[in-house]
Amino acid sequence: MNTAGHSEATEPRGLELTPFRGLRYDPHRVGSLAAVTSPPYDVVVRPDGVHHLQSADPHNIVRLILPQAGTPSAGTEQAADTLHRWQTEGILTADPEPGLYVYEQHDGKGLLQRGIIGALRVSEPSEGVVLPHEEVMAPVVADRAALMRATFANLEPLLLTYRGDGATAEVIEAVAGRPPLLATTTEDGFHHRLWSITDPAEVSLVQSDLSHHQALIADGHHRWATYLRLRAEHSSPSPWDYGLVLLVDTARYPLRVRAIHRLLHGLPVAEALERVKGLFRVRRLDVPLPAAQEALADAACAGNAFMLAGDGAFHLIDRPDPALLARTIPDDRPAAWRTLDATVLHATLLDHVWRIPEDSPAHIAYIHDTAATVDKAERDGGTAVLMHPVREEVVRDLARQGVTMPRKSTSFGPKPASGLVLRALDV
Questions:
Q1: If we measure between CA atoms, which residue out of 55, 53, 61, 58 comes closest to residue 24?
Q2: What is the Cα–Cα distance from 412 to 260, expressed in whole angstroms?
Q3: What element of type H or E holds 198?
Q4: How far apart are CA 179 and CA 156, in angstroms?
Q5: How far apart are the first and last CA of the chain?
Q6: Pairing of strands 256-258, 281-285
Q7: Nearest C-alpha neighbor of 46 from the set 276, 354, 365, 425
Q8: Is 296 helix (H, G, I), strand (E, B) or coil?
Q9: Is 313 helix (H, G, I), strand (E, B) or coil?
């Protein structure tokens, strides 16, 4: 059983990243590596997203990360059976020796991101090693935990950031000059390359450097919460002491921070606007989506602002009534938290004005793609709430204070493609 290099240290000094035997697709057994990849499970937002990915290749990773069955329990059992079958058939094979993996993404237009994938020691937020910045939804954690238990695997890495620009960055740059294990281009135009680091000296350099750093969860709060739950269920040492992550040094490779939008089911735009009348300033904009996004960005510079859509137009709501904010937003948090758009959205608009439960899929969906959010609102007769992204430094500062933002407040990217390397806990 793989314990991912359980450390003998009794006092961890920061990030503990360890090699593992990556489980990867045999390129000769699938149509193409691009055809078996997927965005992370929570970013498959197209109405036919799962079907589209399943149609791309019968072995697409979406069959593991988002199994389609009659019930959740049937889905997890199906995913476990599928993973076992693919390993037996040689569709997925384990690399011969443990390694860390350098992962590169670039869009061919100047955006280049490189990071390192490994099995990271799971640590509590109180340790100050891995900093969460968003709240999580219990049903989603339960769903991911059931899937990981059934498959006995980490099927996709979550995204963590740190600021170092040290030895790890130098190792990554050196490795990126070598022939890769794999290279592919996905349908979104991103080019992906993967290398393995198995040289003990290079692995040691990375581990020593990272041991002095803490990381911010950029994407994957629910999976990190799942790692914590599964570790607590097993006596240590066990494979569950570690979880699959991609670490990106934002001192060398800054990430983009985007907003995650909301789709409110069953709330027509006209009703949403009627309820905010007198509480926010409301302006109708008959403009294309890019112009609406620019108007939202301009308004957000002066305070809380949101763009509503779904009726063929855009409606900018901003300048909330200070008295409304005072009676709906808790005053026991830092000012930076109280003034977040996500805080105002959840505490004021969702809870107080629209009275929509934020953890009910029947009432609200969280969508990363702006155009997809608007299109679905217009098709379904609901309301799209478009958000303006928060700055990374605000996120990191709140996380260091131990203050979590409202769920789904940010979207860091580019996100790693799922399906390039998996971690099976029994190899």
A1: 61
A2: 10
A3: none
A4: 23
A5: 6
A6: unpaired
A7: 365
A8: helix
A9: coil
Q: Flag whether 185 is in a domain.
A: yes
Closest CA to 385 of 338, 328, 344: 344
Check whether residue 276 and residue 228 sit in a common domain.
Answer: no
Residue 275 domain-assigned (yes or no): yes
Q: CA angle 43-259-120, nearest 5°?
A: 60
Q: How far is the C-alpha of 378 from the C-alpha of 376, rounded, in Å? A: 5
As to burial, measured by CB atoms within 10 angstroms (0-12 exposed, 13-18 middle, 19+ buried), residue 322 is exposed
Which structural domain range is residue 80 located in? 17-257+414-424
**Residue 236 placed within a domain:** yes
DSSP string, 353-391: IS---TT-TTTEEEES-HHHHHHHHHHHT-EEEE-PPPP
- Backbone conformation region of residue 165, classed left if phi is above 0, alpha if psi is from -120 to 50, else beta: left
| 281 and 245 in a common domain | no
pLDDT of residue 289: 97
Clarify whether residues 107 and 57 are in a common domain: yes
Please tell me the distance from the alpha carbon of residue 405 to that of residue 232, in angstroms, as a whole number. Answer: 24
Q: Are residues 375 and 347 in the same domain?
A: yes
Question: Position of tokens 């992204």?
Answer: 389
Q: In sequence order, what DSSP letters do the residues of 83-100 get, joined into one string?
A: HHHHHHTTSEEE-SS-BE
Distances (CA, A) of 8 to 11, 14, 21: 9, 14, 20
Structure tokens at 16: 């503990």
φ/ψ (deg, to 5) at 212: -100, 10
The answer on 238 and 105 residing in a single domain is: yes
Residue 3 lies inside a defined structural domain of this protein: no
Same domain for 172 and 296, yes or no, is: no
* Count of the separate structural domains present in the chain: 2
- Is this prediction's pTM over 0.85? no
- Is residue 23 domain-shared with residue 128, that is, in the same domain? yes
275 in the same domain as 225: no
| 10-42 confidence digits (pLDDT tens) | 455 799 999 999 999 999 999 899 999 998 887
Q: Based on the number of CB atoms within 10 Å of its own CB, is 312 exposed (0-12), middle (13-18) or buried (19 or more)?
A: exposed
pLDDT tens for 255-310 read 888 888 999 999 999 999 999 999 999 999 999 999 999 999 999 999 999 999 99
